[in-house]
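Why do we care about 3D structure at all? Because function follows from shape, and shape follows, mostly, from sequence. That is the central idea of this module. The next example makes it concrete: a single protein chain, its amino acid sequence, and then its structure expressed as tokens.
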Amino acid sequence: MKKVLVVVACMLAVFTWSVSAQISGDFDGNGAVNINDVMVMLKGITDESAELPSSADMNVDGSVDINDVLFLLKSVTQQNITPTEDPNAQKPIETASNQIAVNDEDFKMVGRYHLNTGFSAYAFSNSGAGISFAFKGTSLEVKLASSAYNESNYTYAAVYIDDREPIAIKVTKSGWYTVAEDLEPEMLHNVRILKRSESNCGILVIETIKISEGGELYTAKPYPTDRKIQVLGDSITCGYGNLYNGGTYSCYTDVEDGTYTYATILGERYGAELDTVCISGIGLGTPDNEPWPILPAYKQQDNASYSDFDFTSFVPDVIIVALGTNDDAQGATAEEVKTAGTELIEFIRSKYPDAHIIWSYGIMSRGSMNAIDELIKEQQAKGDTKLHFLPTQADEANEGIGLYGHPNKKTHERMANEIGALIEQLTGWTPVEQ
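And the structure:
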């Protein structure tokens, strides 16, 4: 049948059917649905390595196959069948004005968050958490605040607009910050406003956005896949000192970027949604809380919230545990590491029985290497076949080093490569096209 379809398609004259960008069928992205899109779709279903979008299910039968190609061909040649609406299409949102208070209905929340009663606005504790949305207009401003205005550790936000370089905003006061003023008015601009600084340096409050007069708010750009990754970590995962390249500094959050770490690189690479819980100085913990254990924070809705996290709201395919460094620094014994580590793994497994758990350790210290290896082998012996240990180590000679011995951006990239290779081996995932 495929040979017949190719012959038929080649014999047909090109017929251009102009459609809205919100309608599926335009697989070559030229703003029109015609025989070229049929050929693109045919090539896609015959390529076993291709990952087709959900919108390729033209007849909405739950699978993408030759029947969908025939459906689209009939639509193009007869014009009597309307392609199905793409459920992932970004849609305009009606608003009362060009100033829009951030909410969890019209905006996509990235990572963990809470409604802060002191600010009466949504707040974010963890590095890389924030909001995602889209709009049409020429300018964007955002009203930000923080719980800490300290010259040595100001809260930072990073704003990503389309494919532009991220804009770093140091939140020195509560108020409006101009993000962009030169945008194309008719273009749909995709925006992410994320917390760049770590949890210990105050919460980031994202109160309101302001788009240009006549502009229009749209739903956020959807993730390219339904993959999910959860990460539990310390200052390494926060991106502490990853921008430092020598010299002096007055504010240590100037030289950290929690939106460019091994965790965020993996999320981007595999088109996965991220849930990150990371705090500098935290660890598996000891009976004396030295270091403070991560488990209580993991159970919370957000680090600065006392509400319980709903573990059914985010079900990860892969969980990365990157802990142990601060336990080494505080002199935790091997038995304490094994006891606390076992408790953490068993709690995670009780919530997510099907997830792959990867424990990555060794980039800053290696004192607990044997203890972590032993506790993982003990859990594997009990039947946990989806628990894995990935030892790593620093390579200062080739990569340099960040602030106070922390990994810099180059090392974070290598860490992402090492963890990513194991993720691909375990899940069969391949990187998405950027």
